[in-house]
Design a protein that fits this description.
By secondary structure, the chain is α/β, with parallel strands linked by helices. Helices cover 40% and strands 18% of the residues. Bound molecules: NADP nicotinamide-adenine-dinucleotide phosphate. The site of NADP nicotinamide-adenine-dinucleotide phosphate (NAP) has 28 residues, from helix 1.
Length: 220
């Protein structure tokens, strides 16, 4: 049983990758720096070529779109390059990967997981671009499920709240370090495992810490 994923080198994706290996899957990760498929997700030509080639020799049971980047600052301050990169990595790449993989997923009655965000479920200041990509990804999955359920393909959108990962390394804030105020990647990996092992299809799930907290970084 094969998984094709992105984002498996770090954070939430790393925990999911380890859990999938524990479950007996062979996991193929797309990464810019280390993984079975070396590719920048914003390079759509290379991505298409590499994935088409991989699909010629592998069955696919799970497509896991986990890679993502965020910026949270006034929209007018974003460069065109930043806007394009976030749209490519968070939204275009998962839609393109799904397009390439659906034939194989229909053959295996497979499962698509899209790691969206809590930001897809609400409207927060300085998140317009990120929210556009994550709500786009979430609605893409929900709509796609209506189309592919006749072929028994499952589609799940996971919408995590703040999770302690390197995602925040370049941001001016980070999850709280107080007990019960943040999520850890393994909680999301456990949720994915529960959904994969469930007979019914869980199309959309929001995972939050019991309490809310945030840390502003000094000097940022
Ligand atoms: N952490 C949170 O609080 C939180 C909350 C809600 C949703 N999310 C979402 O969860 C997902 C995982 O994030 P994380 O928190 O685990 O962050 P992370 O540790 O920073 O991981 C991000 C991953 O995205 C991949 N990536 C970024 N740009 C890429 C590119 N151009 N091409 C290929 N891969 C690229 C990286 O892979 P390589 O470096 O190997 O290329 C890395 O593995 C993201 O979609 C994020 O939006 C996170």
């Amino acid at each position: 049983m094969n998984v094709l994923m992105s984002g498996g080198r770090s954070g939430i994706g790393k925990a999911m990758r380890t859990t999938l290996v524990d479950m007996g899957y062979s996991v193929y990760n797309i990464s810019r720096s280390e993984g079975e498929i070396l590719c920048d997700l914003s390079d759509t030509k290379t991505l298409e070529r590499e994935v088409k080639q991989w699909l010629q020799t592998h069955e696919l049971h799970v497509l896991l779109n986990c890679a993502g980047v965020g910026v949270f600052q006034p929209h007018e301050t974003l460069s065109s390059a930043t806007i394009q990169n976030i749209l490519h990595v968070n939204l275009l790449a998962p839609i393109l990967l799904t397009n390439l993989c659906l034939k194989s997923l229909k053959a295996t009655k497979g499962h698509i997981f899209n790691v969206s965000s809590i930001e897809a479920t609400r409207h927060a200041k300085y998140s317009a671009l990120y929210t556009a990509t994550k709500s786009g990804l979430r609605d893409f999955g929900l709509s796609l499920f209506e189309e592919v359920r006749k072929d028994e393909v499952k589609v799940t959108s996971l919408n995590p709240d703040m999770t302690k990962t390197p995602f925040f390394d370049t941001l001016h804030f980070a999850p709280s370090s107080k007990e019960n105020e943040y999520l850890v990647p393994q909680t999301l990996a456990n949720t994915m495992r529960f959904i994969l092992e469930n007979e019914a299809v869980i199309t959309d799930i929001t995972i939050r810490s019991p309490k809310f907290g945030i840390q502003k970084k000094q000097g940022k």
